[in-house]
Amino acid sequence: MLPFVGLAALIVLTPGPDLMLVTRSVLAAGRRAGLLTAFGIAAGAALWALAATAGLATLLSASPDLLVIVRLLGAGYLGWLGLQALLGARSEAPAAIDQSRARRRSPGEPFRAGLISNLLHPGQVVFYTSLLPQFIDPAGDPMPQVLMLGTVFVAIVLAWFSTYAVLASSVRLRGWERLAPVLTRVTGVVLIGFAVRLAVRV
Fold first, then answer.
1. pLDDT digit string (tens) for 123-144?
2. What total of structural domains would you count in the chain?
3. Considering only CA atoms, which of 133, 118, 127 is closest in space to residue 191?
4. Is the dihedral of CA 13, 18, 23, 26 positive or negative?
5. Hey, what long-range contacts does 66-73 have (CB within 8 A, 24 or more apart)?
């Protein structure tokens, strides 16, 4: 379980569209909008977890040998995430959204934005079909294992994006612009390391 928690946390903490969306919500309408966006992202992750519990468990029960294939796909996905982090280390933060437009937004709009963003994220498909199976014991019943791991992943998603929304809305760190590229590069290197380790296990 600990290896999965570590890998899931690393993936969730990797800067991506969801993080940028929370940032934009906070800049546009403050903490409440950021939290609603975080809840929407977590809801999307929960729907993916339920879908994986139904479909992925059946797939693994029918052919455990497919783990070799999905392991290679998972390694490729991790390598892609790491490369994207390294290449995007110098990308600029999103600009603030016009405040007058933010005031006209309905309270449910940030939640819907987070939900749709997560549901349409192609990385979710690869995560639940390629990475999560690496932590499934073929000798056991796949369904409860997938449900448990999916629940853990959703909890990590909710905890991280909610915490980020609160911190981003209450603290302005002037040194963050200089520190962020370094942390992003470190994350990229670690993800690539995970990819190599996963690939050599095949």
1. 777 788 778 878 888 888 888 8
2. 1
3. 127
4. negative
5. 66/133, 67/133, 67/134, 67/136, 67/138, 68/202, 70/129, 70/130, 70/133, 70/134, 71/130, 71/133, 71/134, 71/198, 71/199, 71/201, 71/202, 72/199, 72/202, 73/126, 73/129, 73/130
Crossing angle of helices 31-62/142-170, nearest 10°? 160
Give residue-wise pLDDT tens across range 13-34.
887 778 878 887 887 778 899 9
CA neighbor of 131 nearest in space, from 114, 153, 112: 153
Q: Which residues contact 85 (CB under 8 A, 6 or more apart)?
A: 14, 15, 184, 185, 187, 188, 191
> DSSP code of 94?
P
Residues 6+ apart with CB under 8 A from 15: 85, 88, 184, 187
Model confidence band, residue 93 (pLDDT cutoffs 50, 70, 90):
very low
Q: Give residue 196's domain range.
A: 2-200
Q: Helices 176-200 & 66-87, crossing angle to 10 degrees?
A: 160
Asked whether the beta carbons of 119 and 21 are under 8 A apart, the reply is no
Q: Cα torsion at 118, 120, 121, 123 (round to 10°)?
A: 120
